[in-house]
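Put briefly, the fold is written as integer tokens. The lines below illustrate.
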Amino acid sequence: MDLKRIIAVDLDGTILKNKKPFMGADDFGKPERKVEDCLRFLKNHGFEILIHTTRVNPRLQGLAPALLRMRVSDALDAHKIPFDGIWTGPGKPLAEFYVDDRGVLYAGDWEKTMREILARAEKNFKNVY
């Protein structure tokens, strides 16, 4: 069986800058610096780029999956950002690597992971209040 090399990349805060205030599921930020070049390099080295997003989440008053895929595709195409697919399904997409601005790396040490989560939560709280 030939396994595809897939990188799942979060949309907001990773490919596109977070927009503040968030104005709805079809309001997109500008691209992060160098994202186009780096994703193109990865594609040229055999990786498929799968975009994933929580914009379909009903708590965000998300768009229907088909409409969201169209809007995300249009936003990425407008900035010439390469991608192979857009994941709007439930759960986490199957991938070899996950790139996300909210991810916390687990490297075999739960205490270190816990401290990282608490430090980032404190920083997030200070940025909001």
Observations:
- Helices lie at 35-44, 65-78, 110-128.
- The first strand starts at residue 6 and ends at 10.
